[in-house]
Amino acid sequence: VRAKNSQLTLAGEFNVSGHNKGDGGVLNFEADSGIVLGSNPKFHADAGQGGGKGGKVKMKSGQPVDLSAIKTKFITAKGMKDGRGGLIRINKAKSTTDGGGIDVRRLMDVDGGEKLAENAEDGMISLNGVHCQQIRTSKSLYSPGGEHHITFWTSTRNPKRQLLLNVLEGLNGNLKSFMRRRQGVCISIHEEGTDMAKFFALPMADTPDDLTAGQTFQIAPKNTWPVSAIPIYSTVFFHGPRFIQTDIQLPETLLHELGHAVDFALNGVASKSEDGDDYDILVRQSFFKLDYVNLVTARHPCTTMLQYLVDYSTGIAVCTDGKLNPIYARSTNSRIARRLVAKWFSKNGGDGRGWAGLFAECFAFKAYSFQVPPFLTVDPNGSWILQSGNFPCVLEYASQLVKGKIPPSVNCKIFIRPGYQLHSLDASIT
């Protein structure tokens, strides 16, 4: 259907699905002045139940197709049996609902059949010029006929995408089952963050900055995250204007973003943490262990791995030849951690609300980066702190998650002395 020099309104159901053993057909809509979705639009180009490949649903619009009013799955191009999924393409799309962004997994489906081979290329979704290829994951991630999956999308043919898929497949089976049953996660891999922002039509405020290597989000107002009824999107970028991720850093970034997804699935145990709740207490016990050898004796930075920390903006090290740099005099280790790695070691830091950043990086650390020399990780300062051996409670919580114990049960026997405050000063540290 083509509307030349005019607008095209689409309402009701359009169905070119196959019959019995047959591939899905093609729905093709073009309108120079824009496509408008009317009442209850549905577009189906699925294979027949007896088997076949998904078809194609394509919209070429002179103006962005507004998906704001759509709340449920309305475009499908599914394969059946061993058939791969089809193609959904909208050249220009937008959504202003829930703060902006297209909830792609909730609205569109290009899944292949239940007998499609693992690691095979499945269907493709193309939005705003970014083409995301879906890759069939194993049955530990993808549940045929199930409501929720851990889905793997990629807008790049970079061979490093296989490295990330292998990391995903290698997660503990119970953890994968929990995430799949809970609400599903979409892993989305891109060359850079701008590709991700275009694909999901994110508002400018949510577009990754020049140093962001990954992002986890839901299509909902930020102050409501997490929402258990909608998908979680965890994204990773190979490079950006000011960084290129190495093969060693990419798994850490993926696992950090999955850490955020686990936090979401646990109803925001870290991102919605309030002062005095269970996770907050574990954090404070860990910081006290980092700060003090016992109830009265401060742990000097230059006697721990914190001596290797450097202020990236000035090049000034915390310690030189075993002596504390004067600018850090009287600073406890937690205060130094907050100063140099605020995104992880401060509450409501730059990596989400509450202790979200710390939770996500502890998950990545216990799943992977504990075995990596800190200077090779995404943030060496943060890795030195976690590898110091003096941050036990939240790391034990993360360790139990990585091993599939959900929810974790941590009895951290660290007594915090009365009056202790995070990120405080101590006159004995010179």
Q: Your description of this structure?
A:
The chain has 430 residues and is an alpha/beta fold. 24% of the residues lie in helices and 19% in strands. Strands 1-4-7-10-13-14-15-16-18-17 form a ten-stranded mixed β-sheet. A four-stranded parallel β-sheet has the order 3-6-9-12. A two-stranded parallel ribbon has the order 2-5. Helix 2 crosses helix 5 (249-265), helix 5 crosses helix 9 (356-367) and helix 9 packs across helix 11. The N and C termini lie far apart (76 Å). The mean pLDDT is 93.
Low-confidence stretches: none
Radius of gyration: 24 Å
Oligomer: single chain
- Beta-strand percentage range: 15-25%
The total count of strands amounts to 22
Helical residue percent band = 10-25%
Structural class: alpha/beta
Tally of alpha and pi helices: 11
Q: N-to-C terminal Cα separation, in Å?
A: 76 Å
> In this structure, how is the largest beta sheet organized?
10 strands, mixed
